[in-house]
Structure formats: C-alpha cells, structure tokens
Amino acid sequence: MDPVRKRVAVIGGGIAGLAAAMRLRDLTPPATEIIVYEQSGALGGKLRTGELAGVTVERGAESFLMTGPDGAESAAVALVKRLGLESALVHPHKVPAALAFGGRLAPMPAGTLVGVPADPATLGDIAHAAPGHDADGGRPLLGEGADVAVGELVRERYGAEVVDRLVDPMLGGVYAGRADRLSLEVTMPQLAAAARVEHTLSAAVRSAQAASRRVPGRPVFGALEGGLSRLVGAVATAGAARISLGLPVRELARTAHGWRLLLGPVPAPQTDDVDAVVLAVPAKPSSRLLAPIAPTAAEAVGGLDYASVALVALALPPGTPLPELSGFLVPPSEGTLVKAATFVTRKWERPEGGPVIVRVSLGRAGEQERLQFDDTVLAERAHHELGELIGAPLPPPAATWVQRWGGGLPQYAPGHRDRLAVARAALPPGLALAGAAFDGVGIPACIASGERAAEDVSKVLEDA
C-alpha cells in the first residue's frame, strides 16, 4: 500500500456506517480512500422508504429525535443540515396517542418517562401502583455503576400493573422487547443516573425529568419530506466514500501495516488491504469477524439477542373513520400479535381525499414463531386485530405491503454498557465498532456511534 495515501474500510452500509464515512472524510486528508462495503444490494439498513397507493410510507424507522441528550440538536439534525436537507425537515402533527387494552383506547398518560410516572396516582384507571412499595430505604435505588432491568426496578417500586400496562408497551414500541429484560442504563440513561442518587423511584423520575435539556417549543421528532431514504441517498452521493454493494466481507485479518479483508463468494474470493476498519454491522457478524483477531471482544458482543418484527401497511378507502389519534401501543398482556399502530395520514401531513394509511407493527422479542406466516396471512391478521383494537371493523384495504425485519432490534440486557466497554478495550488499534448493536437504537444514536468510530480510527491513522 502507498505509505502516504491511507485507506479505510467501513463494513456495513447502514446509517451508522454511512455517518462514519462522512466523518472520516472530515477528519482525514483529501487523498484518503474510504470504502463502504455493504453485502446487500442497497444502502441504508433499516432506513427504507416505500410507497403504498401513491403515498410515501416508511418501511423501517419513520422519524428521528430532534434534540440530543445535551439539549443541542441531535446528530441526525446535524447530518441533515450538513447534507443541505434542512428545508425538507417535517414534523408530526400534535395528535395524541393511546394505549389499547381491555377493549378500549385510553389516552396516553402525560408526564411519564418512557411510561414510568413520577406520581402513579395520576394514571387514573390505566394502572394502579402497589401501595407503600416506593418507600425511602435510606440509600440510592442503584449502586454506583450498577444496572438492572427496567421492569425489575419499576415492578419492585410501583408493582406489576404499571410495568405491564405502561412500561412494557412503551419499551415494546421502541425495542420490541420486554421491560423485565431490557437494561435501564441503555434504554433510560437519565433515570439510571438519577436512581444512583435518589432514594425513591418517584424522586428519581422527577429528577430525570428536571435534568432533561429539551428545548420548550422545539419539535420532538422530525423526518424528511419524501422519506428518510433521502438521507441515505444524500450521503451516498456526497462523495465521502466509494460504495461497494453486494460484496460481503467474510474474514478480517491483521497484516504488518493494517488489515486484510477477504471479500466475495467462496468460489471467487477477493482481498483488500486497508489501514483501518470501522465495523458497522450487527452483533453476530461482528463477533464472527472479530473472533480470530480479538476473541475477548468477540465474546463480549456475540451474546446480544435480537427481536424480529414485521411491519404491515394498509391503504384503507378514503374517508375510513379512525380515532382522533396518531396511533396506539398495545401491552403484551392483551395477547395480540399487533404491538403498535400508526395512523400515518393523521400523524403526518398528507393530501386530503386520498387513501387512509395505517402502519401496523407485529411481533415482540421471543415471538418469532408468531411471524412465521406468509405475507397475505400477516396482512389479514393485522387488519383484523386493528379493527378489534379500535372497536370497529375496518373495510378491506385497497393495497397492502409487508416488511419483515428478522433479528432487527437489539435487546440490551442489563450490563450491556460494561460488556461493550470490555469489547472496545480489547480491540486492536485501527479497528472500531459502530451501530445499534453497540450504542443504542434510533437514528441519532446510530449516527453518533458511527461518528465516534470514525474519530477513534482517525487518531490511529494520524499516529501511523
């Protein structure tokens, strides 16, 4: 390799890998060659915009947070601006959401932190807290550096009903997981920090809410007119990296000067030598590639579980009556395959008089077998359960599509942050990890993760 001109491989063309490539272009000399290897035929990962009955409907993530944990604009907004797409920013209408249980749709309680209330008495008949459980025991709820499952903490302090009816559906909407298995540190970091100081859960929730740096009046969520695939396309055409599609990276090995990638199908292998690597793929393929070169890191990341989900979009006839909501969440205790629904044409700006679009999310962690039907059956199931959950049968849809995300959502067990720290400490110089498997779901988290990985490897390149 040319000793002056550096080469960096980004393995994985989801938004984390693309963000890493953009940041690498900022941090490295103009002559640096950056290559994004994506084994599928398309960039973007779970950012995929579709169409149904002439209406734009996301097949994956539908929006991103506008504000970061520090109160500044999120990494997603910063990238949108960097790519000149700020004028395309759109925001959902201020329409309430609901919880579906017991044959009715109940308004989502205000003032909770991912479903955890500061005062359970404000929940009305949605959920009742166990009396006397949230007593001050004279010490913080969590020890320094400790982590627990969200459900374990809330169940102990407020009782099962608050977990089952509020926290589970809220976390399920984001992670498709169960509160009793998801890390408090990863999914609710502000509450975890407060729990290391406060002696009661109600005080910890109030403290976490007070520490929030969200700017009043600023929209919480944003998207792009025309779909989030515009963000992917803008990165791809920005010229930050050379894009290689359909060429899987099967092995990663050390060389005297960097890394050798073994590429392509077994009958026709290819190699590529680079100075640094950003690994931006899910946990299992990351672990497989790391095993020969960083076994400790491979073991630390390889145990991460994933949930599989399916999205069903329904185009209902114009004028189909729906509740005055943006959508609803369904607690697992209801037993439905449907876990959430979004009334797309009510939540987002859409021309009047067109079809009524509903996007339905099916499946939770551990329920993969319930998704093992063909697309027609899943669409029919979604349509039927949707009608039951809103309390009125729905007319047949004019069109549907089904998008499956097998193993799509990471399930962060307690202790995830510690395991990740072990993994990163065990990585050889010039190799960095990025993506939802490591640093959290959500578009801003993935972008920030990719940018951090780029910064890590660029420091190594500077020292080489």
CATH structural class of the largest domain? Alpha Beta
Integer tally of domains: 3
In round numbers, the mean pLDDT is: 94
Tell me the distance between the termini: 13 Å
Class by SSE composition: alpha/beta
CATH fold category name of the largest domain: FAD/NAD(P)-binding domain
Number of DSSP E strands? 20
**Count of DSSP H/I helices:** 15
The proportion of residues forming helix, as a percent range, comes to 25-40%
Low-confidence stretches: none
Spatial ordering of strands, largest sheet: 8-7-16-17-18-15-19
Largest sheet: 7 strands, mixed
Task: State which percent range the strand residues make up.
Answer: 15-25%
Cα-atom Rg, whole angstroms? 23 Å
Organism: Paractinoplanes ovalisporus
Enzyme class: oxidoreductase
Pathway: Porphyrin-containing compound metabolism; protoheme biosynthesis
GO molecular function, one term: oxygen-dependent protoporphyrinogen oxidase activity
